[in-house]
Design brief:
about 0% strand
């Protein structure tokens, strides 16, 4: 993954995070409160936006890094993108009353997010 791809994904995750956050706070507020899933929605938005911002920073690092630290950082970016899709995506669907079999997807996304942070730390250590 190069820095431009990471920047594109940071923009996509950031923009959609703001959009689904606003949608949940306004258009879906009543439905989410009635279902008792407003906090779940907010957690999904928070994790999506945090990882969009982290990906933005990592993109800057990818631009100037090569060697083993660049490879670790690139994998961190991939894991953050996939982890955000799995973690936040499954929470959005569950908050809207989606099938309960999606429940186990959330921790898989969380594990990918954690692995991405471990690789980001490894990249820093290798630099």
């Amino acid at each position: 993954m190069n820095h431009r791809t990471a920047l594109v994904w940071a923009g996509i995750l950031g923009a959609t995070g703001v959009a689904v956050g606003a949608f949940g706070a306004h258009a879906l507020r009543g439905a989410l409160e009635a279902a008792g899933t407003r906090e779940t929605w907010e957690t999904a938005v928070r994790y999506q936006l945090v990882h969009a911002a982290a990906l933005l920073g990592l993109a800057g690092w990818l631009r100037s890094s090569g060697g083993p630290e660049g490879r670790c950082a690139a994998w961190a970016a991939r894991l953050w993108i996939a982890g955000t899709a799995l973690f936040s995506g499954s929470l959005y669907v569950l908050a809207l009353g989606g099938p309960r079999w999606l429940g186990p997807v959330t921790p898989l996304g969380g594990a990918a997010l954690i692995a991405g942070w471990v690789l980001a730390a490894a990249a820093a250590f290798a630099a």
